[in-house]
Amino acid sequence: xxxxxxxxNVDTTVYKTLLESTKAIPWKIDWETLRFTYIGPQIESLxxxxxxxxxxxxxxxxxxxxxxxxxxVNFCVEQSKAGVDHEADYRALKADGSYxxxxxxxxxxxxxxxxxxxxxxxxxxxxxxxxxEEKLLRLQRELEELSYQDGLTGIANRRLLxxxxxxxxxxxxxxxxxxxxxxxxxxxxxxxNDHYGHLAGDDCLRRxxxxxxxxxxxxxxxxxxFGGEEFVLVLxxxxxxxxxxxxxxxxxxxxxxxxxxxxxxxxxxxxxxxGVATADPTDGGGQASLIEKADRLLYRAKQNGRDxxxxx
Length: 312
Known about the structure:
The chain is of the alpha+beta class and 312 residues long. The protein folds into 2 domains: 2-131, PAS domain (Beta-Lactamase, 2-Layer Sandwich), CATH 3.30.450.20; 147-311, Reverse transcriptase/Diguanylate cyclase domain (Alpha-Beta Plaits). Helices cover 46% and strands 23% of the residues. Strands 2-1-5-4-3 form a 5-stranded antiparallel β-sheet, sandwiched between helices. A 5-stranded mixed β-sheet has the order 7-8-6-9-10, with helices on both faces. The N and C termini lie far apart (88 Å). Its EC number is 2.7.7.65. This is diguanylate cyclase. It holds the Pfam family PAS_3. It comes from Billgrantia bachuensis.
């Protein structure tokens, strides 16, 4: 018999040790008196209040953000009276006056007659989760307010290009990998619009965009409309030679599409000129210098007769 008693005491000690070693904070409230019969010592490290200061339900209510209090208390009391397990999120007051987001998961304990006898549960610190949720909500609102898609072609617009280029530049600096940038211009596009009309010109831009999209093989590469008849490609971790190969693939795909251009000074088909620039961000400078370099190389390609690629 003594052996059984010892075993039960050991089990109780083990269970208590397990409960008090978790980050979740266990607690128990007597339903008749609405007083805490137990609360885990972890409460002090999270909120700064000692376990002894949690006497009754009023302490729990008073240490809740005023904006959350009525909603949470009314909900928990209603569910508890009905004998329904439940959970609630709220901001809990810390001893230093700040707040931390808590999730309370509550189990309703009933006696043999089916009457509510006690509430037991766990408090979880969900501050990081709430911060991430709020960040995602902010991003969603920003995406709703600011479109990152070019309205005509459906590809990325200049706003998204600037954001991605800044991110990739910082990434290239950390990884010490080259970052390549291709600037592409449709040759004699003004003449195209004058000869075929602006609606046909818009259709031509859409077709070129789709051809370029099909020529990108890596998900991380970005195609964007730079403005007018200019497109750009951002190629992370790409050497100058590899970037030139991408440019050649794009040029070949546009040639294979054989889009008529009877008003061109270069060919009877639509052609493009490209400037291909590669930078090592660890050498200094900034993403603006990479764009300027590609723009200069594109200008050189056009000055040298168009329908060509200049890489440097």
